Amino acid sequence: MQAHTIDSISRMKVISQIMKMPEQVLEAQGVTPDDLEGMLAELQEHVESIDLANDLHSIGGLVPLLSYLKNSNAKIRAKSADVLTTVVQNNPRSQQLVMEANGFEPLLTNFIADPDIRVRTKALGAISSLIRNNQPGITAFRLANGYAGLRDALVSDTVRFQRKALNLLHYLLQESNSDCKIVRDLGFPRIMIHLASNQDFEVREFALRGLLELAREESVRNLDRGDVNLRQLLEERTRRIIVMSDEDLCAAREERQLVDSLWTVCYDEPSLLRERGLVYLPSDDELAPDVVRDRFEPPLRAWAARRHDETSESPVPLLLGPAQ
């Protein structure tokens, strides 16, 4: 394992040196964006280890990686954000290092303004990992009007972008009830009511979760209980759930419970789902796989190390060299 760590550090140093080279120099040497994307993919495998992720800064690789967020090629901007997601996820030390290196600003710029939707989506994923359990990051996001960016993401036509935005929004509302007022004033409830009838079940569930967080905050009426669109939404979802097959009912377990909870909180009466006995079913006792959590939960950091232990092959050398 020690030899593997030393080898990984050596490779990370080589990659860091390459990232420091100007784009025009790399182009003159015949290095393509695909080559650089592959190099970043290798770096991402190394920083799956939390120790190696924290070493990235000390070997001089973090700042060059952040500079790649401004690369002229969209694929490189997207992949560098993807690598940063791995660096900072569940890693307070690297979160702090990225914040100190002013890494939040280019991520926010790419999330809000990049012309490429994949870059925007990857940047949002990196921001989500960067500010989780990181109060300075949450504060920076709020002060930079990050909520307006989330609102724009929700009205996009890209499902993956919407999912990530709803996921982060739900987390932020759980962390700070006071942010419910910001969300209300920016018009989020209307957007989430619309998304709660989306064909994508994850978008629906996250939208319902967000609405429930707003409804539960009693200090201020952040969700208008008299909104006819809200009532129509819940009635529509109820009708659809009632006519579901047993298999679909099982898959819609969380949606059933969210619709019931929202109805009860908003109208202070049992939902029709509860009256029909459809909120909790006998099959619910068998824990179904948490698809939403699996989609957004970070991969295990030990994955790269385990993969190395399970194979006897040496790492493939990167065929890129320093400028002449």
From TrEMBL:
Keyword annotations: Repeat
GO cellular component, as recorded: endoplasmic reticulum
Residue span, TOG domain: 7-247
Pfam hit, one: Fes1
Record flagged with keyword Aminoacyl-tRNA synthetase: no
Region (Disordered): 304-324
GO molecular function terms listed in the Swiss-Prot or TrEMBL record: adenyl-nucleotide exchange factor activity
Name of this protein: Armadillo
Domain of life: Eukaryota
Organism, as annotated: Arabidopsis suecica
Region forming the signal peptide: none
Keyword Methyltransferase belongs to the record: no
InterPro entries: Armadillo, Hsp70_NEF-Inhibitors, Nucleotide_exch_fac_Fes1, TOG
